[in-house]
Structures are given as structure tokens and as C-alpha cells.
Q: What sequence folds into this?
């Protein structure tokens, strides 16, 4: 379970995140939905501890991420915005490297790698060097290495952005599987259909603050819009009426 | 579970694998290595070649029959080989067919017999240093012959030859062969120091600035591992590369010295396995410092390219002490030993002089270099805590 309370962060004069609060339950998929520049990535970075919040609290399974960042990170699997790979390592070596950093060794490590390569349909690229990988293949590698230690909580920053249909489906399948295993999944997106396809609850973010949260049905009811996309636009529209 | 030490080894292993597969890092390490035997052999070859040439000179003579006694005398001198000269000596020298030629003009015999000054010509292309040396030797032989002749003529006239020699200059050269050859070997420790600085350079840049530019730094740092373990592992891999290069370079130096034409040159050069090993021992503790320094500089750079530029400036660091003491050896002093890089130069100077250095001297210099290395590793880990550095600016 991931809990975020009153998170705030500013970069110079720019307020990136201003009082974001939400809770993501185990066995559920929570989507952080918002337009570009709403503060989604910064919020996620504060959850996994790469950005220090100016204020507020983050807890992962009850561990205070600010007091014990390494402890909190051990319980997290993260697909960050940056998905860089090592061009001279194979896909499998990427997954193994991260597995070892989490303390996995020997048969256990092999088993986890094989399982992820199978789940993400990466058998073909598993022993190829990442230098020539497509965006979709790189994302799969990044996802596999983020999940190698079987984290109870998973944070994904725009997991399907820029992917083709096949890769998008593989990622969605993965997200559902994680939920069915009882894990807590938080992902960010600015694409409505994406969110509608997999999430259980929504946190709509705009200009650094939470403008609404609830299940998709609750949001439709709240805004009076039948389509989730209309609801999203209604919620994130600025006061000046800009899209 | 995952201790800091385990993560250190995991990171080190990954960076080594990555480095071994990186053509650039292998090339960067091997290029200076390849230059060692080339430079050495070239140097030896020239040295031995020139010494032979000066000791044994071949003199093509044009018109030799006009001065038979002179030519006979020259021929009797050791190391002089008289040959028939070309018909047109100037043209032949110009074209490079012969390096030089001794020309006896037509009026030589007539003037010589009348005790007038008779001219001989040494035609030489002095732009070539070998020809110049041969010509120098030939001229001094001719001068000796002329002096001998002058003395005989004076004696025949009842005058002491000393009248025309008011001063005799004797030069006494006390330099040994080894000392004369020293400049040729001054670059040896330099080559080793450079290998130590270049060997791990590619990994130091690639695992810091490169990692960020590829966008793999953030995913890596999210792992629950202390920054010091990450930086330590990367640093360790860079040091392993630098050490491997230094060992290879030493092996090559030893092989080249073993099979080089030292004996042919007739040099008693006191640069053998013990001296080379001492130079290596002095240089090795510099690798951790070099890698640490390179990593912290590369981490500060905004891009990979920038990192390469900055780090290449660091190449001057191992040479800095030499610039302040050109030619002069670095004298031992405790404070110098305690200054990283300078301390290594003190040790290397003493190794070149054939003296084993005191264990205490070695430990002081090594400890100073390692302490500085630790500072840079810690500094790099601190830099990685900065968001501006992790996410780029």
C-alpha cells in the first residue's frame, strides 16, 4: 500500500506539486491521470525517493520513505520516466543485474528472470544486446528489471507511452496480473482510454493538485459526463477555460 | 540479504562486463600500450644505428689516386672503410646515392708537393644527422692527419711543432654510457603513469556521464543500494582496467628491454626487471586516484562529450610535477611523498637511479594517493544525491 499525504515540491519559482494526497490499496490499480506538466512525474519521483519533497509524507507498506528511503525502495518496483538500457548488455543481463542488486542469486534469480521474460513475451530478445532495441523492447526490459525482485508495490510512469498495440497489450496484461496477485499498482498517464482499460481508482491531477479522485463511475457521476474523457476534460480544465 | 559490499561487487562486475564489451574502452587502453614497444624499438634502433655508423664510417673517395698517402693513412685508421667515390660527387650526394664523399681536387698533388695548403673537400648533405656525424668524424681524422704532417714539416725545418700549438685542449667526458642514454629513457615512467591514467578513463566516463546520457542512471539509483556502493563499484571497475593496463604495459616494457638490441649498442643500462617493477609499484596506487578524480569530474559535466573534454585535461595531472622540474630529478622530501602524484614521482626518480625505495616512503605515497581517491569517490557519491545531476540540467 502506498500512501501520499500533502506532498509539495517547488523548483525555483515553479510549483510542481502542491498538496497531493492519495492512497493506493493492495490488489488495486490506481491511475494518476493528468495533462502534461500536471506534476505526475514529480509526484512519482517523490514516492520512490529520487526527488526530496519540500513537504508532506510518503509511506510504502507503512515505511516512511523519507526516514528510510532504502527500506521503502526495497518494497517498490519502479518503471521511471527514463528507460535507458545498456547497449552492450543483453535483455536478460539487465534483469539479472537489477535482481542481484536486490540480493537475488542463483536458481532463484534464474527463475525470476525466466518468468518475467516469459510474461512479457521477451524470449526472442532475451539474449540479444540492447543496443538495437526498439522503444517497445526497451520498455519491456525496463519493466522486467523493475519487477525482478517481486515487489509488493509497483510504480509505473507512463508505462505505455509511445508503444505500439502489441506492446501496450503486453504491459496492460502485466498490470492486471500484478493486481490479481494482490499488489499495489500506481501508474501515471495522460491517456484516457489507457486508464479506463485497467484502473480501479483514479486520481486526477492538474497544476500540481488533486482535482478529483474515485472510481471511474464515481467520476462520471460527479461531473455529469457519460464519457470518461469528457469528465477528464471537465476536471482538468483551467479556470480560464483553456484545454 | 543485500549488503553494501554485495552491491559493490555486483556493480563492479557489471561495469567490467560492460567495459570489456566496449570497443572504445579497450582501444583507449590499448593505444598507449601499442606505442610503448614502437617508441622503444625506434629509440634503440636509432641509438644503436648511429653509434655503429660513427664507429665504422664508409668514405667514398673521388680522385683518391691524387693523394695516395692520405688515403692509405685513412684506410689504416680503425673503423674507416675507403670506397671508390662517384664521378660527380655533388650530384650523387644531392640525389642521396651516397651520404657524403671525400673529393681530392686535381691540383692537390702539385700544391702538396710544393708545401702549399692543399684543399680536400668533404661533400655532405648535413640535413641528415647520420651524415653529419660521419662527416664530423672524417673531418677530425683529416685534421689529425694535417697536424701530423705539419709537425713533420716543422721538425724537418728544425722548428718545434709546439710553436704552432700554443694551447692544447683536452676534454674529459665523465658521463657514463647510462647517463648519456638517460634522456632516452626518461619517458618510460611517464608512459606507465599515462597508462594508469588512461586505462580506466573510458569506464569512469561511461559509468557516470554516459549512464546519465543513456537515461539508465535514474532506474539504477532507484534500486535499494547506497550511493557509495554504486559509485564504489563503478570506481572499482575503472581501477581494475587501469591496473590491467599498467601490468600489460610493464610486461611489454620488460619484453622489449629483454629482446632489444641493448647489447649491440654496448650499453650497460641499469633498467631491468627490479627497476621496472619498482616503477610499477610506485605507479599502481595512482590508479584509484585517477579513476576517482575522473569520475567526479565526469559526473559534474553536463554531457558525455563535455565529460570527455574535461577528463582529457586531467591527463596533465600526472605530468605536472615534471613541468616544474624539467630535467632535474624530484628530490626526496617527506612532504613531497605526502602529496599525491608528486610522491609517485619521488619514488620513480629513486627507482630510476637504481635505488630501492624505503617501505615507509612507499606507504606514505600510496596512502596519500588512496586517501585522495577516497575523497573523490565520496565526493562523486555526494554529487549523485543531487537531483540536478541525476536528472540532468
A:
Amino acid at each position: 500500500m502506498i500512501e501520499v499525504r500533502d506532498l509539495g515540491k517547488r523548483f525555483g519559482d515553479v510549483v510542481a506539486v502542491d498538496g497531493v494526497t492519495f492512497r493506493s490499496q493492495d490488489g488495486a490499480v490506481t491511475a494518476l491521470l493528468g495533462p502534461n506538466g500536471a506534476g505526475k512525474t514529480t509526484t512519482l519521483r517523490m514516492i520512490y525517493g529520487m526527488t526530496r519533497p519540500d513537504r508532506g509524507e510518503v509511506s510504502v507498506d507503512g515505511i516512511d520513505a523519507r526516514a528510510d528511503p532504502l527500506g521503502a525502495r526495497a518494497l517498490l518496483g519502479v518503471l521511471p520516466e527514463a528507460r535507458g538500457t545498456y547497449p552492450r548488455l543483453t535483455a536478460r543481463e539487465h534483469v539479472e543485474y537489477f535482481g542481484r542488486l536486490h540480493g537475488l542469486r542463483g536458481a532463484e534469480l534464474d527463475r525470476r528472470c525466466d518468468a518475467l521474460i516469459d510474461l512479457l513475451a521477451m524470449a526472442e530478445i532475451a539474449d540479444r544486446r540492447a543496443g538495437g532495441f526498439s522503444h517497445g523492447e526497451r520498455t519491456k526490459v525496463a519493466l522486467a528489471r523493475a519487477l525482478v525482485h517481486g515487489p509488493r508495490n509497483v510504480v509505473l510512469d507512463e508505462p505505455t507511452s509511445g508503444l505500439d498495440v502489441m506492446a501496450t497489450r503486453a504491459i496492460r496484461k502485466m498490470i492486471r496480473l500484478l493486481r490479481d496477485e494482490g499488489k499495489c499498482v500506481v501508474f501515471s498517464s495522460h491517456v484516457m482510454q489507457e486508464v479506463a482499460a485497467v484502473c480501479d481508482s483514479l486520481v486526477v491531477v492538474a497544476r500540481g493538485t488533486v482535482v478529483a479522485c474515485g472510481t471511474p463511475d464515481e467520476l462520471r457521476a460527479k461531473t455529469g459526463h457519460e464519457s470518461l474523457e469528457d469528465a477528464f476534460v471537465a476536471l482538468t480544465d483551467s479556470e480560464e477555460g483553456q484545454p | 540479504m543485500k549488503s553494501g559490499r554485495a552491491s559493490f561487487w555486483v556493480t563492479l562486475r557489471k561495469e567490467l562486463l560492460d567495459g570489456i564489451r566496449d570497443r572504445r574502452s579497450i582501444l583507449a587502453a590499448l593505444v598507449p600500450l601499442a606505442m610503448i614497444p614502437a617508441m622503444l624499438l625506434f629509440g634503440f634502433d636509432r641509438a644503436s644505428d648511429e653509434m655503429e655508423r660513427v664507429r665504422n664510417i664508409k668514405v667514398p673517395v673521388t680522385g683518391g689516386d691524387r693523394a695516395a698517402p692520405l688515403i692509405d693513412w685513412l684506410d689504416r685508421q680503425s673503423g674507416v672503410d675507403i670506397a671508390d667515390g662517384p664521378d660527380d660527387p655533388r650530384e650523387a650526394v644531392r640525389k642521396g646515392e651516397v651520404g657524403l664523399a671525400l673529393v681530392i681536387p686535381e691540383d692537390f698533388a702539385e700544391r702538396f708537393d710544393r708545401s702549399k695548403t692543399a684543399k680536400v673537400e668533404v661533400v655532405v648533405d648535413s640535413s641528415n644527422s647520420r651524415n653529419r656525424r660521419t662527416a664530423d668524424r672524417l673531418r677530425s681524422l683529416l685534421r689529425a692527419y694535417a697536424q701530423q704532417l705539419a709537425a713533420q714539416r716543422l721538425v724537418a725545418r728544425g722548428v718545434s711543432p709546439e710553436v704552432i700549438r700554443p694551447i692544447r685542449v683536452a676534454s674529459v667526458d665523465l658521463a657514463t654510457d647510462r647517463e648519456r642514454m638517460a634522456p632516452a629513457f626518461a619517458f618510460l615512467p611517464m608512459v606507465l603513469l599515462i597508462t594508469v591514467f588512461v586505462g580506466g578513463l573510458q569506464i569512469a566516463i561511461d559509468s557516470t556521464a554516459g549512464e546519465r546520457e543513456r537515461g539508465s542512471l535514474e532506474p539504477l539509483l532507484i534500486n535499494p543500494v547506497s550511493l557509495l556502493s554504486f559509485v564504489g563499484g563503478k570506481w572499482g571497475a575503472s581501477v581494475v582496467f587501469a591496473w590491467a593496463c599498467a601490468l600489460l604495459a610493464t610486461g611489454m616494457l620488460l619484453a622489449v628491454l629483454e629482446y632489444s638490441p641493448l647489447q649491440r649498442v654496448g650499453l650497460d643500462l641499469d633498467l631491468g626487471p627490479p627497476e621496472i617493477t619498482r616503477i610499477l609499484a610506485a605507479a599502481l596506487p595512482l590508479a584509484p586516484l585517477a579513476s576517482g578524480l575522473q569520475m567526479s569530474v565526469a559526473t559534474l559535466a553536463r554531457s558525455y562529450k563535455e565529460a570527455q573534454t574535461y577528463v582529457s585535461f586531467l591527463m596533465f595531472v600526472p605530468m605536472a610535477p615534471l613541468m616544474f622540474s624539467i630535467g632535474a630529478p624530484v628530490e626526496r622530501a617527506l612532504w613531497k611523498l605526502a602529496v599525491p602524484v608528486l610522491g609517485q614521482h619521488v619514488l620513480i626518480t629513486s627507482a630510476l637511479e637504481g635505488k630501492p625505495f624505503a617501505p615507509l616512503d612507499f606507504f606514505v605515497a600510496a596512502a596519500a594517493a588512496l586517501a585522495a581517491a577516497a575523497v573523490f569517490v565520496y565526493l562523486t557519491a555526494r554529487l549523485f544525491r543531487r537531483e540536478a545531476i541525476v536528472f540532468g540540467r
